[in-house]
Design a protein that fits this description.
alpha/beta, single chain, SH3 type barrels, ATP hydrolysis activity, globular, Rossmann fold, ATP binding, ATP-binding, 6-stranded mixed beta barrel, 20 strands, about 800 residues, Origin recognition complex subunit 1
Length: about 800
Amino acid sequence: MDLAATPYRSKSRHKSSPSKPAAAPAVPQMDLSTPSKPTPRRKPKSAAPAASPVAPMSPATPSTVRRSRRLLETPTKVASETPVKPTPTPKRKRAAAPSPKTPIQSTESKRRRKEPKPKPRKTAYYRKVVYDGGEFAAGDDVYVKRREGAESDAEDPEAEECRVCFRAGGTVMVECDVCLGGFHLRCVRPPLRRVPEGDWACPYCEAERAGKPIERPRPPEGKRIVRTAKEKLLSSDLWAARIESLWREPDGIFWAKVRWYIIPEETAAGRQPHNLRRELYRTNDLADIEMETILRHCYVMSPKEFKDANDGGDDVFYCEYEYDIHWHNFKRLADIDDEPETKEDPDDEPYNAGNDCVSDTDEDSEYDEEEEPTKCSSARRNQSHELAAAANLRKGRIYGLQKIGIRKIPEHVRCHQKTDLEKAKATLLLATLPKSLPCRDKEMEEISAFVKDAICNDQCLGRCLYIHGVPGTGKTMSVLAVMRRLRSELDNGNLRPYSFIEINGLKLASPENIYKVIYEQLSGHRVGWKKALHYLTEHFSGGTKIGKQASQPIILLIDELDLLLTRNQSVLYNILDWPTRLNSNLVVIGIANTMDLPEKLLPRISSRMGIQRLCFGPYNYRQLQEIITSRLKGIAAFEDQAIEFASRKVAAMSGDARRALEICRRAAEFADYRVKQSGHTVNRGKNVVCMGDIEAAIQEVFQAPHIQVMKNCPKFGKIILVAMVHELYRSGLGEVMFDKLAATVFSWCHVNRELLPGYDTLLKICCKLGESKIILCEEGTKHRLQKLQLNYPSDDITFALKESPELPWLSKYL
């Protein structure tokens, strides 16, 4: 759940409370909708003897812990009021082993032994109960009596009255978000034509906020204002609880186990300014109460449900956090509910009166064990197995601070509406998936045409597409956008069914693990990579097929294809050889940063890669500007000059769209911090991210400490870094051998008439750069075959060394 926004409920609803169900007649009906267990008949409340009135309970203490002493005392049941139960067919008890009898035994005693003994009743649990005219089930939210004598709970109006005309019903009413009072649209001054959007406060609350003296309307003489259940709950005259389970005791009294809700005033932190008026907290306090104390239903909703509750009545409340009554901290319900729970058995049937476990006339436990020992033992084994499975679900789990809880809910988490700057920061994140991908329409059309042609043509062999380009040019995102578009066409029935498998080379521990991933995607089973290779070879060769959709075409997308290179290049050969086989129905799309990767492979591999290639060139400043503007559509938080300045700066470096988005997001953070420090409210439509913020973001991104280390490193250290960038773009591999790097440095120094260094000097400089974490060196002996890798993006090296006054000729290699 997004912590940055708290949903508010729309006002377009009638201010009316769900009518309380009328009292049941003398003989309440049983719940016939649930076959689980018959509900006993119950006499109405008026049938209780008047000779033993119930003493009123003392007012509740302000303690946050609800104890069982808060339960109301139920009038004593008279013997004549015992509910009538349907008499089930009694079960025959197995005869006990014969015991030696004395010769002095009368015929009367024998006859007495043959008579059936009364069968003791057991506690019966229910899923749903019809009680006092209302239907209650586990998981329902209800109002619970808190005390008697303060105000009659029977006075529960069906609809709330207007705070001006003091009449209920009629036309649409709007609720004030401050006092929670209901007002007819025509009674408000000035009158409202329609329900306002967003938060709305009545004129009386607005005047009180402004400090103006105002008198609220009073009811007519002789008319008494009756409070609703919502008002009683918010004034601590009622409880709210969630039913966890329902059962009936052997004496016929129905009970419920409930989990209490509390209002913010009852917490240790008290009501905070950012608490909503209808907000409740769910607690970890459980109690057993009698069904006699439950009034009727209320509706406690999650933030998303509360936002969509347009006409939910007056008994709708908001709950986002759970409150620990012992440690006085808060936990988000979304974090608690995300925990895996033991799933219910789908074959679990509703309660059957013939079952032994919860029958009204069950025998004792000894009879059950004697009657069906095998069934009980198997049930115990299944129960132990389920408990072990539930315990294993949480094995090795690490809980963070969000699981432990916080003392107070931060105010910035509960803000109702995001500012334009906060929206801009969220939409400029690299993890945010854009609605559309601009500036790549031509490339996406080529990819779509290639995939459609490969799917529709069964006899076409060797379908392979190689996509290359510098990092940050939208290669992978374009392919995924095309596949989402084709998926929508498939759902509409306009395309032949196919299977899509996406693999990223960076996520593979070794190149051979790609066989395991492909086999698992097709079959759903895990095997070793050697067995997976054998099964896949048979599948694509026309032998034993894998999976249920064996006849469907398979589109295999491999990102970072160059990471699958091995010493003998067998992995790439096998993957590119499968599409060339008859009836393989395999299409391979490879993505890498190297332009001439096919030419560097063995001839048998490059020939199978085919001639279909697609190049993604770096973005120019106009394209970068269009990408940023498309993400900020509808958010007026940037100046046009600021976006253009950031686009030109990044386009001059590398044309990486990710770097441009990062600079703009950092500039928005600077502007947001400046506005909050000044204390001024940002007006909508005002551009607050200016050129200064972009300049500060660029300086932070490109003037980081590691940039300064690159600028101040020795002359041969700069040459080594530029040579590593050059080898990176030339080979497309993230690692380079020291021997090959030294050969490049010697060649450049000879061409540009620089002093040739020795191997020891270069090796020592690489060790210094490794100590500074500018590059990563392979562990082991320092020799010429040691592998080196850049620890920072190549853009940083380009920015730091492109205009080096000491070595001006380095710019032609960047």
